[in-house]
Amino acid sequence: MIDSGLRDRAGRHVTLRPVDDDNWRAVADVAPRDDQRAWVPALAARYLVLTMRSNVWTSLAVFADETVVGHVMWGVDDDGSRWLGGLVVDAAEQDRGVGRAAVRTLVDWLAGQDGGGHPIRLSYHPDNAPAAALYRSLGFTPTGAVEDDEIVVESRP
Length: 157
Hints:
This protein has helices at residues 24-28, 45-52, 98-111, 129-137, and strands at residues 14-18, 57-64, 67-76, 82-89, 120-124, 141-147, 150-155. The chain is of the alpha+beta class. The chain has a seven-stranded mixed beta sheet with strand order 1-2-3-4-5-7-6. The longest helix has 14 residues, at 98-111. It is globular, with a radius of gyration of 14 Å.
């Protein structure tokens, strides 16, 4: 379990846990709001399949107390940078600070891996204003790179 001690606005303890036999179905069923489907898949199941079929990404379940409320994945690029991807918070759980707590928790954990010092990157679609605002508020800055039509931003520990 990855735990930074953060809570959402409802006071629930937000943690990141491995996807396992007990929670994978709940993670697979995580679905964003309909208006977000231009930027993320209709279900987090797509990200689970990606992590199963790739040696790059590792999926994590986002929990609020003991309830699965989202999905996030991370990976390490050839240059040593850490990447955060596949963040989906279930539609019913949004606007409670779960996504913010999940990103902060994963960024803190990634910054401490392998002695730290590696940039932490992610990308988002330029039309996704809520994502841009969230990541900017968490200290991510544009790198000037674009990947798959998405803006690449990074945080440096």
